[in-house]
Design a protein that fits this description.
This protein is an alpha+beta fold. The protein is built from 4 helices and 8 strands; from the N terminus they run βββααβββαβαβ. Strands 1, 2, 3, 4, 5, 6, 7 and 8 form an 8-stranded mixed β-sheet that branches.
């Protein structure tokens, strides 16, 4: 089994190992820019609060922290932070407060494989009826996906 290596701007991406409790101030909210993952209120607060972080990019579901000029850390934006990002990008305000950035669970970490490709169907198993399944909600008029915006790629 090979380990996939991901890069952003030529630096390796590692997974966050501990949760981060983030305090976003009113000043961060006033200075933040809409639809800008590197300069929104949460990104400004991360750079201000964590000494080794030189840059932060906050997306709808993922948070990337550049540690010095050595590597990036990847974490998960939890529900409350995600809601604020969507609201802010759509013209609302970013509310100051306490937010959490969590490590990715093993099932959320990219493997370079298609989701579910490692599972084999059991002989005689019934196939699920997917025709009645609801389509996922796509969020419009908010910042773009991290994978497409920053050329995150397998090395």
């Amino acid at each position: 089994m090979t380990r996939e290596v991901y890069e952003i701007d030529g630096l390796p991406v590692r997974n966050l190992t501990k949760r981060i409790n983030l305090t976003i101030s009113e000043q961060d909210c006033r200075r933040g820019s809409r639809k800008a993952p590197g300069s929104c209120a949460a990104a400004l607060a991360l750079v201000r609060q964590i000494p080794d972080v030189s840059e932060a990019r906050v997306h709808i579901n993922r948070v990337f922290l550049k540690v010095g000029n050595r590597f990036w850390l990847r974490g998960k934006a939890t529900g409350a932070l995600r809601t604020e990002v969507v609201s802010f990008d759509r013209g609302g305000t970013f509310e100051p407060g306490e937010y959490v950035i969590s490590p990715l669970s093993p099932s959320e970490r990219p493997t370079g494989k298609t989701m579910g490709s490692h599972k084999k169907h059991k002989a005689g198993a019934k196939k699920r009826n997917t025709s009645s399944r609801a389509k996922p909600k796509v969020l419009h008029t908010v910042r773009r996906n991290a994978l497409s915006e920053y050329n995150i790629r397998n090395a």
